[in-house]
Every structure is written in C-alpha cells, then in structure tokens.
Amino acid sequence: MKCPFCHNDDTQVLDTRVSEEGDAIRRRRRCNKCEKRFTTYERIELAMPYIVKKNGSRCDYDSTKLRASLMLALRKRPVSAPAIDSAIEHIEERLLASGEREILSVKIGELVMHELKKLDKIAYIRFASVYKSFEDVAEFRDMIEEFSPASFPRKKTPKRS
C-alpha cells in the first residue's frame, strides 16, 4: 500500500479491525519512510451484470434507471421512500445472487413487476401495461382479474336522503 503523503511503497500494518457495520476491514498503517500514519479500508467489490436489451445491445447496470422506472409506476401512489429503497435492494440482491455476468432486460422487468405487485397493485398494472405492451382493453381486464375483487376496495358513496 502506497503512503498517501510521500508515495513510498513500504508501509506497515499496525492494527486491523472489522468495521462497525461488519462490511469492511479497517487497517491502521504507518509509512516506514516518513512515519506518518493513515487508515485504509478493504471492502468487497461486487460487479453488477451487464444488461442485454431486447435488440441484443449491452449496457452497464444503472440503478438510477431502475429507480426512475419504479418512481414512474408509483407516481402519486401512497408508497413510502423506504419501501421503494427496499424494493430496489431486493432487485439488486437478486441480480448479484444470480452470479451471471449478463442478464436479459426482460428478467429485470420481471423482477420489477414482482416487487411492484407487493408494493402497490395499481403501480403493478401501470408498469405491466407498458412492459407487456398491452394493445387492447381485454389485456388490461385480464391483468386486473389476477387480483381478487377484495384487492381493489370500492369507495363507498354516501346515501342520498
């Protein structure tokens, strides 16, 4: 490890500890040339798979695109920011756990639909209508019928006197 002060290659580890979060190793070091001390951290670096689009092109995974898709489907819906963050974490965990170097964009769409179905049924139908390219009302009806009538409570209209 190079010293950040004098750029000497010869440094000595004085102390090693696991970070409070448990996701990194903290090392206290001393430069053998200038004798200054500094701290380094070792963390696991996990690489997200490349995304293979429908046309065959490949691109880097971008969490901002995933968040934007979820936010668009959830627009004006009563879903908290922590719930959205949790859904994104679940999707990313599944992508990492797959161990694949490349993943089809269709698979990501399915993961998004799965998370939206748990979060908000209206957002799920919104996303599915675009994702599955609905062409007529019958496809909407079929999607809505996946849910029991109890899933969509009707507003009670006040009785007229």
Automatic annotation (TrEMBL):
<keyword id="KW-0678">Repressor</keyword>
<keyword id="KW-0863">Zinc-finger</keyword>
<keyword id="KW-0805">Transcription regulation</keyword>
<dbReference type="GO" id="GO:0005524">
    <property type="term" value="F:ATP binding"/>
</dbReference>
<dbReference type="GO" id="GO:0003677">
    <property type="term" value="F:DNA binding"/>
</dbReference>
<dbReference type="GO" id="GO:0008270">
    <property type="term" value="F:zinc ion binding"/>
</dbReference>
<protein>
    <recommendedName>
        <fullName>Transcriptional repressor NrdR</fullName>
    </recommendedName>
</protein>
<keyword id="KW-0804">Transcription</keyword>
<dbReference type="InterPro" id="IPR003796">
    <property type="entry name" value="RNR_NrdR-like"/>
</dbReference>
<keyword id="KW-0067">ATP-binding</keyword>
<keyword id="KW-0238">DNA-binding</keyword>
<feature type="zinc finger region">
    <location>
        <begin position="3"/>
        <end position="34"/>
    </location>
</feature>
<keyword id="KW-0479">Metal-binding</keyword>
<dbReference type="Pfam" id="PF03477">
    <property type="entry name" value="ATP-cone"/>
</dbReference>
<dbReference type="InterPro" id="IPR005144">
    <property type="entry name" value="ATP-cone_dom"/>
</dbReference>
<dbReference type="Pfam" id="PF22811">
    <property type="entry name" value="Zn_ribbon_NrdR"/>
</dbReference>
<comment type="similarity">
    <text>Belongs to the NrdR family.</text>
</comment>
<keyword id="KW-0547">Nucleotide-binding</keyword>
<keyword id="KW-0862">Zinc</keyword>
<comment type="function">
    <text>Negatively regulates transcription of bacterial ribonucleotide reductase nrd genes and operons by binding to NrdR-boxes.</text>
</comment>
<feature type="domain" description="ATP-cone">
    <location>
        <begin position="49"/>
        <end position="139"/>
    </location>
</feature>
<dbReference type="InterPro" id="IPR055173">
    <property type="entry name" value="NrdR-like_N"/>
</dbReference>
<dbReference type="GO" id="GO:0045892">
    <property type="term" value="P:negative regulation of DNA-templated transcription"/>
</dbReference>
